[in-house]
Amino acid sequence: MTFARRTYHHGDLRRSLVEAAEGLLEERGAAGLSLREVAKRAGVSHAAPYRHFHDKAALLDAIAQAGFERLSERVREAWDGNPCDPRTQLREAGVAYVCWATERPERTRLMMGGMMREDPLCTCLHAAAEDAFQWIFRVIDEGRSAGVFGGPDTRSVVISAWSAVHGLAMLILNSGKVSAETPEEVARLAALVCDTVADGIQIRH
Amino acid sequence: MTFARRTYHHGDLRRSLVEAAEGLLEERGAAGLSLREVAKRAGVSHAAPYRHFHDKAALLDAIAQAGFERLSERVREAWDGNPCDPRTQLREAGVAYVCWATERPERTRLMMGGMMREDPLCTCLHAAAEDAFQWIFRVIDEGRSAGVFGGPDTRSVVISAWSAVHGLAMLILNSGKVSAETPEEVARLAALVCDTVADGIQIRH
DNA sequence: ACCTGAACACCGTTCAAGT
DNA sequence: ACCTGAACACCGTTCAAGT
After folding, report:
1. According to the model, what pLDDT value does residue A37 have?
2. pLDDT > 90: what percent of chain A?
3. Residue A88 class from Cβ within 10 Å (0-12 exposed, 13-18 middle, 19+ buried)?
4. A58 burial class (0-12, 13-18, 19+ CB within 10 angstroms)?
5. Alpha carbon A143 to chain centroid distance?
6. How far is Cα B138 from Cα B149, in angstroms, rounded to an integer?
């Protein structure tokens, strides 16, 4: 990738640290990730990361934030790809959400495991999460405007739909009771859960 | 509670350790819980806990297991309290699940945060979790037998219902986007989500 | 400006030794 | 049988010092 360092200065240490941390995260989980090991893998001393991140939490925040941006992108694609079809939009957005989450177990645990409940130091992380969740809101809102979905109010329906999608991802990841070995099986379950919710919020004629 | 120790022998150190750990858990979370601090609060040396637990994970497992037993009890009560009424059973079981979980944030994060994905050393933990989840299965199975609920098969319907209930609890706990400050608000949202699922799986006449 | 090396206060875990 | 105290190998974080 890059030829031997000529000085003790690193080219782009911040990026190298994030990449090393992402690798270590999927290998050992957030609890087993040590900043010293990250620094070692990036080829610097254990104190060097503090030039780029205030502390360990700040590095994990950066990884979580990048995760929300990518998840957001995937859900947006499902929205874009199925215009004027709220039921399919809901199913495809849900499938994208659950597939993305289950493909990256440790990253998802980091993002969804309650790291966001801390001090509002990192507004960027909250903004990235907000943006990802925004697309689910739009799917429901558009469906209600089109007269396909009903329910008492948009917020209530969003909570129901998002709970089902998010819950399925968490159960596959953490419960050990909902087995979905292949990506196809994950997608099948996600579609099933989304269709059940769609049946529950659909206006009947 | 107990009068001064006469010897360096502790009366029931195992129990004391669990209680100290439970307190520390809700105060600082699983990541901030140290075995040395638990030992200090129980009034023993930092090596003493190893007489009763193989390692830190074993202590956390014991706490998680007790949690599943209590959660199971609450869901079972909802089942018992509403015989021959699957729709109400589902709603009340869901409300019990979400309320219990949100009342004990750190304990629930410990139980549901992926601790169970480890080696099958602790069969007791898995059995306790299995038992808790069993009641949701029964609610759906009974509802399908009674001709109230439909769906392709019981397993699929259970996954949809459990996903919605579990997902709501996780979103309230971890997302920072679904706010439910009071127990009443939590119960209202849980009932709403359960009713949406019930609408989705109900057989229509 | 960017990184190093030593230092500090913590960890989990082990083990010989005490009662 | 049950607990202690010292010891080991790790942590995260800080900071004077180097280039």
Report:
1. 97
2. 80
3. middle
4. middle
5. 24
6. 12
Residue with smallest Cα–C1' gap to D6: B47
Q: What is the mean pLDDT of residues B72-93?
A: 95
CB neighbours (10 Å) of residue B37? Answer: 16
The phi-psi region of residue A173 (left if phi > 0; otherwise alpha if psi is between -120 and 50; otherwise beta) is: alpha
**Residues A13-35 pLDDT 10s:** 999 999 999 999 999 999 999 99
3-state SS class at A202? strand
- Within an 8 Å CB–CB cutoff, is residue B56 touching chain A? no
Of B116, B157, B165, the CB nearest to A176: B116
Residues whose beta carbon sits under 7 Å from strand D: A 33-37, 46-47, 50, 55-57; B 8-10, 13, 44-48, 51-52
A159/B176 CB distance under 8 A: no
What pLDDT, on the 0 to 100 scale, is given for residue A103? 97
Sequence-distant (6+) residues with CB within 8 A of B67 are B104, B107, B108, B110, B111
Task: Give B96-155 as a DSSP string.
Answer: HHHHHHHHSHHHHHHHHTTGGGS-TT-HHHHHHHHHHHHHHHHHHHHHHHTTSB-SS-HH
Q: Kindly tell me the sign of the dihedral angle through the C-alpha atoms of A42, A48, A53, A57.
A: positive
**Prediction pTM value:** 0.93
**pLDDT tens sequence across A175-198:** 888 999 999 999 999 999 999 999
